[in-house]
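Worked Example 4.2. Consider the chain below.
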Amino acid sequence: MFDFATLSINAVILVLRVLVVVLLYFFLWQVLRVITTDLRRGVVAPGTEPAPYGQLVVMSSGQTGLPVGKAFPLKPLTIIGRSLESDIALNDTFLSGEHARLELRPNGWILEDLNSTNGTFVNGLEVRDATPLNNGDVVRIGRIELRLTG
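Applying the procedure from the previous section yields the following structure tokens:
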């Protein structure tokens, strides 16, 4: 005798299996479509966008663990220090909470030491007053050396 109950359960299971396979292929197709669209568009990874005002790039990190080449984008007024409230917060015990200030003025960048304990240096010379910076200058703050670019 023919059992219709068993046949209908087997048919339902077969349909569900086919549906799972179709959904899996649809999902993979969507993933590939998103990847190829992003590649064609030239998606930029976070943190690699060009900085509109320039950036400070790590040249030497001392013992801070900062990766050489890491870029910190600059704002028109940028405070550098150990404090978490600083625009560029660096974990170096040789830095003051608010160590130095970079300010973009009509004639270019100006660097000022904010009465830090260990001083601020540009191209090896100590900053005593507001000091103009040029593209490529190396700023040493604590044990960290940063190059101004852009």
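Helices lie at 4-41. The chain has a mean pLDDT of 88. Compare this with Example 4.1 before moving on.
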